[in-house]
Amino acid sequence: xxxxxxxxxxxxxxxxxxxxxxxxxxxxxxxxxxxxxxxxxxxxxxxxxxxxxxxxxxxxxxxxxxxxxxxxxxxxxxxxxxxxxxxxxxxxxxxxxxxxxxxxxxxxxxxxxxxxxxxxxxxxxxxxxxxxxxxxxxxxxxxxxxxxxxxxxxxxxxxxxxxxxxxxxx
Length: 170
Prior knowledge:
2 helices; 9% helix; three-stranded antiparallel β-sheet; globular; mainly beta; four-stranded antiparallel β-sheet
């Protein structure tokens, strides 16, 4: 059996650029590749290694560099940041405020729940156990970037390059 805990200590980000799409074409970002310093800030590999072993100076936020999803407003390059702390461990409260647009399996706690044990940083993690009681069915999270406001069936925005940082435990 595979049990997944997902705790995002980072973000999904992209360069600040305009997206253009022609009919029947693939979405494109109208910008050159970003300079290294234009990308979302990330801790060094050594800092991540230290954080994994508990040796890091993680600052007040408990994460390398002290960045949290609360810092998103000052980082427009962050497309998505989810640390599973919203709702203070209450799944329904978290579900009401999560940036994910669609969840599959969220009605069954044997497929998806918020837990306080096993969190990488912070107090909570997303648990996707695919338990026997749920017929070993998994769950999924979907986030979309629309070209405009989010609504079902919207034209999607796109990026040539994305950076993702997440912590997953099997």
